[in-house]
């Protein structure tokens, strides 16, 4: 999807979709099926049945969440903010100014790692105070990409070609550049490997951090994008049909393809409290049970686009509502 990469800002992507039918370019874009959610009787609920434990007002378009020991951080690209949400007081705290924070956030090595689409750099900030520790010349390749920590390094895709950069947190410098299939943007670390979803290639690519080479590729669902790790697996939200692919983190084999009915651009996926949690607009929360590989509960309504589990709660952004909700979600189906 070259137009998405050219735009380079998630908020502009949303606007583009709204006017897409009026432009000739749109004929080249993927045609997604309707968002129906899971139509199994009794699975869907209204989001209003989950009153927030806390509501944080966050200016702009709150997106991209990261959980630390005492907080949850949220990025808001269109106002150049990364905001610390204090998990003890349920109050917003520090605001760090970053030029168009995008492409996810990651924690590791005592720091918060924030890709900047505005400056085309990677910002390292103290995970407790938000103080800027370093600016690294490694810019994100895609606004809907991602960033990961693991194997003693930070991992970020920095070119549309694609190129996966390995960053040493000891020197704050790029120490390896790894060729991966074009259209691969979203890395995650699991089982001593880096896994990158290939949005263009409909595959999950495995990178060996010992050799800095691609070791395998697993065919999965159409237009795979966001990833999470849990229950011995890598879970991938496929934007093309709204399914979730489950891949064994040891063998790289596809275990299951789980229909969820949540296709389209945007969204995210996370693991926590023994469940997989996905979010998209119109269906802000989808819960998948790893024991059965089925959607066991799905909430429809307003809100959504980034989701994390931490500090005993589910954290959900309302991208267009200038809010982050902290929710106590029932952990039994």
What does it look like?
The chain has helices at 2-7, 10-19, and strands at 44-46, 54-57, 62-67, 71-76, 81-86, 91-97, 106-108, 111-116, 121-126, 132-136, 147-150, 153-159, 163-168, 173-179, 184-190, 193-198, 203-208, 213-219, 224-230, 233-238, 243-248, 254-259, 268-272, 275-280, 282-289, 294-301, 307-310, 313-318, 323-327. Mean pLDDT is 92; it is low at 1-27. The chain has 333 residues and is mainly beta. The strands form seven sheets. It has a five-stranded mixed beta sheet, with no helix packed on it. Strands 2-29-28-27 form a four-stranded antiparallel beta sheet, with no helix packed on it. The chain is globular, with a radius of gyration of 18 Å. Helices cover 5% and strands 51% of the residues.
Task: Give the integer mean of the pLDDT values.
Answer: 92
Could you list the spans in which at least 5 consecutive residues all have pLDDT below 50? 1-27
Strand coverage percent: over 45%
Spatial shape = globular
Task: Give the beta-strand count.
Answer: 29
For the biggest sheet, the summary is:
5 strands, mixed
Q: What class, by secondary structure content?
A: mainly beta
Using only C-alpha atoms, the radius of gyration works out to: 18 Å
Distance between the termini: 37 Å
DSSP helix count? 2
With strands numbered from the N-terminus, the spatial order across the biggest sheet is 1-26-25-24-23
Residue share in helix? under 10%
Concise summary:
By secondary structure, the protein is mostly beta strands. Helices cover 5% and strands 51% of the residues.
